[in-house]
Amino acid sequence: MNTGKIVLSVVLGVLSPLVFFMGAGHFEGGGGNLVGIVLAGSIAVALYFAVCQFMATRNSSGGLRANWPILAAMVAPLLAVVLFILKGDVELTQGVPMVLAGCIGCLAGALAAHLGTAPGRARSSPESRAAWQVVLRAGAGLYLVVAATLVMAVIPAVARDTSPNATPGPASRSLVVIVAIHVFVAAFMLWRTRGGKLPVGAGVFGLLLGLFLLLAADAFAHMHLAGIALWACTGIDFVVGAASLVAAAMVREPELAGSAR
Description:
With about 260 residues, the chain is mainly alpha-helical. It has two domains: about 5-115, no CATH class; about 125-260, no CATH class. Helices cover about 80% and strands about 0% of the residues. It has helices at about 5-25, 35-55, 65, 70-85, 90-115, 125-160, 170-195, 200-220, 225-250, 255-260. α6 packs across α10. The longest helix is centred in the middle third of the chain and has 34 residues, at about 125-160. The radius of gyration is 20 Å and the shape is globular.
């Protein structure tokens, strides 16, 4: 078993509570709707774990049973958070659904990866592989467009925000970090596709960045032009992230590498 994949799975598992709270964020205002909070957060965790588990095991030929350490390593940090950090009613009302959603997502992702690498799976055509390479390179360009939009249209407006409870300094710095991550992920996508590999990690980061920008778009909705720009950037991140994951599901890396030669 690849030790690096196990370590990566642990890191991804540690980030899962953040994904839960990001998914539940839109239901927490004004006292919150407990059912909406738990449902939205659990769906976000399930999707996150499914994508991460698929990413970690999609090129494995050992089958579901051989990949159980990766699954366990991904769920273990989430279980530890629920058992040792969450207390009282929160542990029962949010922690248990969070763990169940994580387990379901991991199993779904592992199953999808297993079906995608089954020996009888048909190879994709050279035209399909070439088309996905073009799509992924265009996605890298769109990430750069998002970074440029944030720099030119959003960050200056946020820095001048004078609305009640505004924190222009910290908000601007957070957006600068998001810009840097977009540039890094775009460069990573171009490097991976040039070498004939699939930037699945970029797809995961694209979805996570989309979640961050979704929260920012909601928070800065009162700033009309900046709000519109944030909603557009959010849509781009989700589309590019989803495209990267769909490419991973339809084309295996050995096939894509063959088309790059």
